[in-house]
Amino acid sequence: MEDQEILLKFQDPAARNVAFNQLVRKYQTKVYWHVRKMVIDHEDADDLTQDVFIKVWKHLENFRQDASLYTWIYRIATNECLNFLSSKRRKFFLPLNDVGAELAAKVEADPAIAGDEIELKLQKAILQLPDKQRLVFNLRYYDEMPYEQMAEVTGTSVGALKASYHHAAKKIEQYINTHSD
Amino acid sequence: MKTPFRLDDHPRRTSPLAPPPDGYFERLPRQVMERVQPVPAAEGALPGWLLAFSRPMRTALASVVLLGGFATSFFLSQQIVSPQQPVADSSAALALANVPRTEMVQYLLASDQRVTLPDLAELPGTADQTVTDSFLQASSAEVQDILDEQPTDDLYL
Predict the structure, then answer these.
(1) Beta-carbon separation of B20 and A32 below 8 A
(2) Which fold has domain A95-181?
(3) Most buried among A86, A161, B78, B150, using CB within 10 Å?
(4) What is the distance between the alpha carbons of residues A65 and A151, in angstroms, rounded to a whole number?
(5) Separation CA A39–CA A127 (nearest Å)
(6) Distance between CA B129 and CA B137 in Å, rounded?
(7) pTM tops 0.95
(8) Model confidence over A118-134: pLDDT tens digits?
């Protein structure tokens, strides 16, 4: 179902639930993986993904369609992730590196990475990046999102996003090269 | 020499982490839909007239009722205690009067709270005959003489 059709149905109280169910089915995988790559842990990603869709439900009526539904949902998911990570740091009085270390430990324990040394180093290198730069890297590298869409999601200029991605890629290569045997 | 790592040469995984549990994406829409639906059961447990108020109003009402309960119990406890107060005072005075004088002197000598000469001199009851009769068993003149004979240093009983 097209976004436009979903939005139209959502305005009709009788079809609202059906429309929203369609919306969740359409975007759940992308939202889940976007969140999961930021918080690493499945349980956290599950909670946050549900929270994202609850927010979408609450605000969809007022969605003005200045941006596409896709980028609007991504934006909500991005804010949820960044708020989650910063509140995690505040809650446990942890400095930047300790949350990074916690996430790195979860990556090490992930069965999908076990045995793949280069992939493990890559994931650890990504976790060294500041949250916002990691987000930019994930959107570009994994989701292959065009810079214009990334600008809508992050509220940052295309130029700044290109520079951020370039620096992130360099930092990752440098990390892996200095940490190789 | 080892080839330096280059991100562009590395095969990219679209989902680098382990996939979620089986059936997760089948369950997720139902879980989300359950969370966005209103919960009528909790509302149904309330009396009908309470539903006329909004949630914040109901919370405020509950707080007022609770505070009222505290205030009422405090007021009632004051009403019960007040008439008994003089009885308690008089029974305490009676119990004190029944303490033998020797024991009272022993207590005063043993305790750190010593009565000094200035304390006696300032005792308003020294001019009162009934007090001297009951406590000192001496006339005012005798008391005055004894006080005049005392050195100026503090003297403890």
Answers:
(1) yes
(2) Arc Repressor Mutant, subunit A (1.10.10)
(3) A161
(4) 16
(5) 10
(6) 10
(7) no
(8) 899 999 999 999 999 99
